[in-house]
Amino acid sequence: MAVLFLKGIKLRVYPNREQRAQIQASFGCNRFVWNQMLNMLITRYENNPELSLPSSYTLDYLLPQLKREYPFLKSVESTSLQVTNHDLIEAYRCFFKQHRGFPKFKSRKYPKKSYQVKMVNHNIEVVDTHQIILPKLGSMSFKTGALIKGTIKRVTIRRSVTNKYYAILLVDTSIEPLEKTKHIVGLDLGVSDLVITSTGVKYPTKRFDKQLADKKHYWEKRLARRRLQAQTQIARDHHNHVLEPRELTDFKNYQKAKLMVAKYNEKIANQRNNYLHQISKQLVEQYDVIKMEDLKTKNLLRNHHLARAIANQGWRLLRTMLAYKASWYGKQLVIVNPYKTSQVCANCGYDDGKHALNIRRWTCPNCDVEHDRDVNAALNICRA
């Protein structure tokens, strides 16, 4: 039986010049409201620290007054400002209740920007397979590899650092569970092989960062040199007391090199995400219960010889994909403590002690069974 889930669908949208200007104005207005409300919260706390934490509705009541004082706020979608208030209050509450970082003021220099729009009175509509209607923007063409089925709850309009525009739809849709296979698998995560299953299947590591390393390094060198040249020119302008000294954003050759580096980083991330999606989908289709180790990646990154290879693997992203896909399709993901999984014999349970990383195969001195280090760990994870 199909179950309702909230699902995110990413669309690549292609706004025209007027729509890009409207999106840019929305970025600015949402940033302005965030900064104004955050300043108000700080002042409120300084005046009376004993006051209870406000709700997002409290900030929403201030929006009409803020629009009267700053008429340019009327040009953007009102629900996007309400979402900004909600996000600010959540961050503000987390600081006091969960001791997270205090919300920061937003700068217009940050290249990656976004805002959200709620579905109100059918103001968001997908016309056909290539056209979507968004509030304040109108009709816009898009591309996507997923079918859009269900009720749209909200849309996030985002511009990436490579100046590409996306609309991420949050859709309430029904998903049919996959057929049960009655199989259980354990997953060991590694560096030479990305995923090793308890059945002996190994998904190899693909170093997408190395495949594009030369082209990326070509532009990284030019970016560093052009940044230094621009900073030297800016310092010279200050020394000569130029009335309007230039900033880094005014140097086109520097901006071009920065864009090219960002494009290669984006391509590497897209290739890695696509590979992880393929692996996670295969595992969810083949097994009813998936057990994987709970690796502390932050600790492993302290090994400077393997830090770049570990960062390339995307273990946490794979775990996230398996978690939501398992819930979608009626499967189960179990997280297992990896303690001694690679040194305990999966055949007899004998603890042979810690093995160096260069030892990939070992023989159990108790039962004389030869083990592949990673497959043995996956078997122990499966039986945990």
UniProtKB/TrEMBL annotation:
Highest taxon above the source species: Bacteria
Record-annotated Transposase putative helix-turn-helix domain positions: 6-48
InterPro entries according to UniProt: Cas12f1-like_TNB, RNA-guided_DNA_endo/Transpos, Transposase, Transposase_put_HTH
Record GO biological process: DNA recombination; transposition
Keywords attached to this entry: DNA recombination, DNA-binding, Metal-binding, Transposition, Zinc
GO MF: DNA binding; metal ion binding
Membrane-crossing segments per the record: none
UniProt domain Probable transposase IS891/IS1136/IS1341: residue ranges: 175-303
Matches recorded under Pfam families: Cas12f1-like_TNB, HTH_OrfB_IS605, OrfB_IS605
Record-annotated Cas12f1-like TNB domain positions: 315-381
Keyword Coiled coil attached: no
Sequence similarity: In the C-terminal section; belongs to the transposase 35 family.
PANTHER family in UniProt: RNA-GUIDED DNA ENDONUCLEASE INSQ-RELATED (PTHR30405:SF25), TRANSPOSASE (PTHR30405)
Protein name: Transposase, IS605 OrfB family
Species assigned in the record: Paucilactobacillus vaccinostercus DSM 20634
Lineage: Bacteria, Bacillati, Bacillota, Bacilli, Lactobacillales
